[in-house]
Amino acid sequence: MASSWADVDRFLEGVLDVHDTVLDEVLAANRAAALPAIDVSPLQGRLLMLLARLSGARRVLEVGTLGGYSTVWLARGLPEEGRIVTLELSPRHAEVAAANVAGAGFADRVEIRVGPALDSLARLREEGGDPFDLVFLDADKPNNPRYIEAALALCRPGSVLVVDNVVRGGGVVDGADPASAGSREALQVLGGHPRLDATALQTVGSKGWDGFAVAVVR
Ligand code: SAH
Ligand code: DHB
Ligand code: MG
Question: Beta strands 155-164 and 132-137: pairing type?
Answer without folding.
Answer: parallel
